[in-house]
Amino acid sequence: MTTSTSAVGRLLPAISSLLRPPARDELREYGGVGLVRRKRVIDVGCGDGRMALGCAPYASEVVGVDPDPEAIRLARSKARELGANARFKVGVAQELPFANEHFDVVILSWTL
Amino acid sequence: MVDALREAHRILRPRGILIDARPDSRVFAYAEHQGATSKFRPAGVIATAREEHTNDRTSDRAVTTAVGSRWFRPLRAGRFWHRVLFEDRPSLQDYLDDHARFVHRVRWKVDEAKRRQWDDDPWAIRRAVRFELFERT
Fold it and tell me: What is the number of structural domains in chain B?
């Protein structure tokens, strides 16, 4: 499992999908895409949307939440670029603006 | 962190899945050199910074609280390894200098002359990621 970058530590110190495994590899470790297929998924602490966008082709609904507005802006831009079925919101893990029992899967990837 | 887990419990349907994944500070990371055969070989070990150990322990305690409170039931845990690639050794060192997770100095297993010889070659940090899947009760 490899992440390729030449910008690590220089260009993207904070919002760095580049420092993390590709979402498909990470999902495979957790049990594969079956885990999120046709599920309602939330990626809490989503950063620039790495895992949320990785789940989007399979899930019925994907939401990413992160306190960093710049990260959310990037995630939205990537989602538009990919035509991905994912929404992104600025917010904190301690106060998520969603109804009780709404999601099938909660992802805390490099968040806790 | 406990608050975040309580909130995860609230928004998850019963029997929904919580995935918690984080860098695994219980094991060293490796500084690896890519040789002529394209294979990466460990050239040094990199420890996790003390503050990050403390943060990781706090996260562990939060998870223990969530499980102890019966918000979640553990399903499966594991670890995988992930390589972050660098163009050369100075880039790897820049990364260590700038980031808080690791200590800034590699504990080298190869001598300085060898390292200098390899300065312009590709390098990587190979680090462990631990994960656990939980079912919402």
Answer: 1
Give contacts of A95 with chain B, Cβ < 8 Å: 7
Confirm or reject CATH 3.40.50.150 for domain A23-93+103-107, answering yes or no. Answer: yes
A100-109 residue pLDDT tens: 999 999 999 9
pLDDT digits (tens, 9 = 90+) for A42-59: 999 999 999 999 999 999
Neighbours of A38 (CB within 10 A): 10
Q: Do B84 and A96 touch (CB under 8 A)?
A: no
ipTM: 0.89
Do residue B19 and residue A42 have CB atoms under 8 angstroms apart? no
Q: Residue B124: give the domain boundaries.
A: 2-136
- B3 contacts in chain A (CB < 8 Å): 93-94
Contact B133 A6 (CB under 8 A): no
Domain borders along chain A are 23-93+103-107
pTM above 0.80, yes or no: yes
